[in-house]
Write a structure and sequence with these properties.
By secondary structure, the chain is mainly alpha-helical. It has one domain. Helices cover about 45% and strands about 5% of the residues. The chain contains eleven helices and four strands; from the N terminus they run αααααβααβαβααβα. The protein has a two-stranded parallel sheet with strand order 1-4. It has a two-stranded antiparallel sheet with strand order 2-3. The longest helix has 20 residues. The relative contact order is 0.14.
Length: about 260
């Protein structure tokens, strides 16, 4: 064999030890189907949630909570109303509005640990916010009898609402301008009135789900500079006060009970 040819063969690179082919230049992507390595999976941002909470959803949630609060209070539908005045209903609705504003600004606050998108029902929001209003009063999360204590159980409150499901309620919002949420009932009443149906009295779900919704609402309120009263996150019933029922003390307890709706 020619010595020059033999020298060329010996100097040729070993194909088994050859370096991998060079990476393609930008714009010259190679065929991914020929690669033995699986493509890297990247998690896309959740865009759906940002589109879900539009103005209509926000307004519906606000007015549903407002209607729930009225059923639990000054509509005189219950033997023992939880709220005694329209001002109390406004306070509940205004706190709901804080949570909704936080949700509009950052919809991803509603995503759970596995990226499920669940804000809970207006029914659960209303029950928690009505409880929060009561627990925020100077007397705190307390009642004056075991009977009154039992009425604050979330499931019992849900039964009161469910009994009035489907009823039509007049709301202080305009037919033309339906952006009055958060302005308070007194101001919104100037815009005219509209009727809505209390159709969304839904099941509260499992204990785990109820806790998730409570924590979600608490987180939304924290983002807006507020919060739920902490015993409500643990679904604790109000404490029963114990007083010596003699003399002026008995009269004072009776006056407080009458004002708050306790028996």
């Amino acid at each position: 064999m020619d010595e020059d040819l033999l020298s060329d063969l010996l100097d040729a690179p070993d194909p088994l030890s050859a370096p991998p082919p060079a990476e393609p230049e930008d714009g010259n992507e190679s065929d991914s189907s020929s690669s033995s390595e699986p493509p890297l999976l990247t998690k896309e941002p959740r865009k759906k949630s940002a589109l879900t909470y539009n103005k209509q959803w926000i307004e519906t949630r606000y007015w549903q909570v407002w209607m729930h609060a009225r059923v639990l209070g000054p509509m005189d539908l219950l033997r023992f109303p939880y709220l005694r005045s329209e001002e109390a209903v406004d306070a509940v609705a205004n706190k709901c509005n804080l949570a909704l504003q936080a949700l509009m600004e950052n919809p991803f606050l509603a995503l759970g640990p596995t990226d499920e998108q669940d804000t809970g029902s207006a029914t659960m929001w209303a029950i928690l916010l009505v409880q929060d209003y009561y627990a925020s009063l100077p007397e705190g999360w307390t009642v004056n009898s075991e009977q009154a204590q039992a009425r604050w159980d979330v499931e019992y409150m849900h039964k009161q609402l469910f009994a009035h499901r489907g009823m039509t309620i007049m709301t202080p919002e305009s037919e033309k301008t339906q952006t009055s949420y958060g302005k308070g009932q007194a101001q919104a009443a100037q815009l005219g009135k509209k009727t809505r149906n209390l159709d969304y009295v839904k099941s509260l779900g499992t204990d785990r789900h109820k806790k998730r919704v409570a924590n979600l609402l608490h987180g939304l309120l924290l983002a807006s500079g507020s919060q739920l009263q902490l015993p409500l996150l643990r679904f604790e019933l109000p404490t029963v006060n114990t007083y010596a029922e003699v003399g002026p003390t008995k009269k004072l307890v009776g006056a407080i009970a009458k004002k708050r709706g306790d028996k």
